[in-house]
Amino acid sequence: MKRHYITQKIGFAALILAALVVIVPILIVIGIIISRGIGAINWTYLTAMPQDGMKAGGIFPAILGTLLLTLGTALAAIPVGVGGAIYLSEYARDTVLTRAIRLAIINLAGIPSVVYGLFGLGLFVLFLNFGTSILAGSLTLAIMTLPIIISSAEEALRAVPTEFRTVSASLGGSRWQGIRHIVLPQALPGIITGVILGLLRAAGETAPILFTVAAFFLPSLPHSFFDQTMALPYHLYVVSTQVPGMPLEMQYGTALVLLALVLSLNIVASIIRSYYRRRREW
After folding, report:
1. Do 65 and 231 contact (CB within 8 A), yes or no?
2. So what's the pLDDT on residue 219?
3. Which domain holds residue 4?
4. Whose CA is closest to 235, among 52, 62, 45?
5. For the chain, what is the domain count?
6. Is residue 214 helix, strand or coil?
7. Pairing outcome for strands 56-57 and 50-51
8. Crossing angle of helices 248-278/2-37, nearest 10°?
9. Angle of helix 184-204 versus helix 248-278 axis, rounded to 10
10. Backbone phi, then psi, for 279, in 5-degree steps?
11. d(CA 15, CA 84)
C-alpha cells in the first residue's frame, strides 16, 4: 500500500513537472513580448496608417486585414468542415473509402503551411484568376483549417451518447431532425473548440498569405474581398527582417497586438463553450 502511495506521488510530481516545462517557457515569452511591446501601444498605433517606411504611424490596416482574413476563413471553412463532420459521423458507413478519407484528413493536418500557400497560389490566384486578394487568402486558409475542424467536430459528434439518437427516432423524428435539434446542440462545445483552434492557426499564419494576399504596404484600406490587404503576421515578418532601423519597440508592439487578438478570440470561444457546456444534458 505504501509503495502504491509513493508511486502515485511520483506520478503526480512527473505530471506537474511536465506541465511546468510547457507552461513556464510560454509565460516567459509572453512576459517578454508584453514588457518590450507595451510602450508602443497607444490609440495612434492601433488606428493610424503606417508612415515613414513603417517606422512611424500605426498598424490599423494590418489589424483590419487580419480580421477580414479570419472572417473569410470562418465563412468558408465552418459550413464545409461541420457539414463534412456530420456526414462522416452520422451518415457515412464504415467502409474502406470512409477510412481512407479520415486518414487523408489526418495527414492533411500535418502538411506544412507553405505547401498550402503554394497550392492557393496555383489554384485560386492563377487558375481561378482571383488574383492576390482577400478571397484567395481566405480560401487558402480555409483549406488549411478544414482538417482541424472536421476531426474535432467529428469527435464531438461521436461523443454524444447513442441514446439521444434512439430517443429521437422513437418519437418519430427523422435522422436530420435528430441531428439538428439534439445531437448538434450537445456536441456544440467540442465543435466550437475545433473551430477556434482552426481559426487561431489561420490568424497567425504567414506563409499562406505571403503567396495569396499579403502586401508589404498599401496606401488605402481594402474595399472588397478581391483587394489585397496587409496582415499582422506578414507585417511582423516584414518589420522584423526587411525594414532597416525599425525600432524594436514597434516590432514587439506588433507581436503584442497579434497575441492579444489571438487570446481575445480564445477567451470569447471559451465563454461560448462554457455556456453551451452548462446546458449539455450528459
Report:
1. yes
2. 82
3. 1-41
4. 62
5. 2
6. strand
7. antiparallel
8. 130
9. 170
10. -85, -5
11. 36
**Is the CB of residue 152 less than 8 Å from the CB of residue 194?**
yes
Q: Which residue has the cell 478519407?
A: 101
Cα-Cα-Cα-Cα torsion 14, 273, 143, 233, nearest 10 degrees, comes to -70
Q: Tell me what the mean pLDDT of segment 133-156 comes to.
A: 94
Same structural domain, 92 and 222: yes
pLDDT, tens only, 47-65: 988 887 777 788 999 999 9
The answer to whether position 69 is within a domain reads yes
Nearest to 80 by CA among 132, 3, 138: 138
CB 46 within 8 A of CB 256: no
**Cα 186 to Cα 260: distance, rounded to the nearest angstrom:** 30
Quickly tell me which residue has 514587439 as its cell: 252
Q: Report residue 175 as a C-alpha cell.
A: 435522422
Same domain, 144 and 228: yes
- 15 and 114 fall within a common domain: no
Q: What is the pLDDT of residues 230-281, one digit of tens each?
A: 999 999 988 888 878 788 888 899 999 999 988 888 888 788 878 777 776 6
The torsion of the CA quartet 201, 206, 212, 214, rounded to 10 degrees, works out to 120
Residue 49 is classified by DSSP as P
Q: Residue 183 has which C-alpha cell?
A: 445531437
Q: Which of 45, 57, 46 is nearest to 219 (CA)?
A: 57
